[in-house]
């Protein structure tokens, strides 16, 4: 597989191209795993992939596929499979983030599949959380080491039942307990959720610090629900600093039909540029690696 691998220019993304006209299902699994562990992000391009092959390929390398209960956005289930979801809830920009970092149980690994590319714009953005950490000023690093992030959100009864895919309060309590999320149920059956998360985590190998969280899109889309754990506000200049770093170290992926992106969700942040057309159809699967990691 060696002659099929190259880096996108100036990029963290390792691209694996189909130069020998082989099936993606025939690629050397061990080699993929080693590349994934080293780089955290792989783009498979030029293979003949439809949605069934995408599922088969991801099933070879991943386990514990989850549905999106508790997720922040509405996602369309594809072909009746709750572990295969469309990401196009709306069309505006989504800033760099780790997937589902507003709860304890995050998927360790993400897969994206380009069922149909946008006519223009709508690139998926990525960056390495290790590099992000290295770029942050020492005063901001110190602030995040002292104070964790707190997500604090009120959700109506109708909305939590949809979001958590249940109308049973006991089940909701159980999900919140497993996610280390503090739940308050109000008289009108609306709920208040409170979750505290670090902005910076040690890498799984323990050698690096990684800036990965849901701070930037939350500040962008729903600023009232995020503060520090002591209820103090995250200073605007800190948010500006982080947005500047994010732009500086972002790699854009311009989708081609059939592209597959494999992402380490404990290290690589992702987001997307805005788009205007109705063509863009990108699917996602959330899971764990089927190998030691
Ligand atoms: Fe995401």
UniProtKB/TrEMBL annotation:
InterPro entries: AlphaKG_dependent_hydroxylases, TauD-like_sf, TauD/TfdA-like
Any single GO BP term: antibiotic biosynthetic process
Protein name in the entry: Taurine catabolism dioxygenase TauD
Annotated TauD/TfdA-like domain residues: 12-281
Keyword presence, Secreted: no
Family matches, as Pfam families: TauD
Domain of life: Bacteria
Organism: Nostoc punctiforme NIES-2108
Named cofactor requirement(s): Fe(2+)
Keywords of this entry: Antibiotic biosynthesis, Dioxygenase, Oxidoreductase
A GO molecular-function annotation: dioxygenase activity
């Amino acid at each position: 597989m060696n002659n099929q691998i190259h880096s996108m220019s100036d990029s963290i993304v390792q691209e694996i191209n189909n130069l020998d006209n082989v099936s993606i299902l025939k690629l050397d699994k061990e080699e993929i795993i080693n590349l994934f562990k080293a780089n955290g992000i792989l783009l498979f391009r030029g293979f003949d992939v439809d949605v069934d092959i995408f599922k088969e390929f991801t099933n070879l390398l991943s386990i514990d596929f989850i549905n999106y209960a508790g997720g922040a956005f509405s996602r369309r289930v594809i072909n009746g499979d709750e572990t295969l979801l469309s990401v196009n809830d709306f069309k505006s920009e989504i800033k760099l983030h780790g997937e589902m970092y507003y709860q304890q149980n995050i998927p360790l690994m993400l897969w994206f599949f380009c069922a149909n590319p946008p006519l223009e714009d709508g690139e998926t953005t990525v960056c390495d959380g290790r590099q992000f950490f290295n770029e942050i000023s020492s005063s901001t690093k110190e602030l995040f080491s002292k104070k964790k992030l707190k997500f604090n959100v009120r959700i109506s009864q109708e909305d939590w039942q949809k979001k958590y895919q249940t109308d049973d309060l006991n089940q909701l309590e159980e999900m919140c307990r497993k996610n280390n999320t503090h739940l308050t149920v109000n008289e009108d059956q609306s709920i208040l959720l409170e979750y505290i998360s670090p902005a910076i985590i040690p890498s799984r190998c323990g050698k690096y610090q990684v800036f990965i969280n849901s701070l930037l899109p939350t500040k962008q889309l729903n600023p009232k629900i995020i503060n520090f754990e002591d209820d103090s506000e995250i200073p605007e200049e800190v948010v500006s600093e982080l947005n500047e770093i994010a732009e500086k170290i972002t790699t854009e992926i311009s989708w081609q039909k059939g592209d597959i992106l494999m992402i380490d969700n404990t290290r690589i942040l992702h987001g997307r540029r805005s788009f205007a057309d109705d063509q863009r159809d990108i699917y996602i699967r959330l899971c764990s690696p089927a190998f030691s990691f």
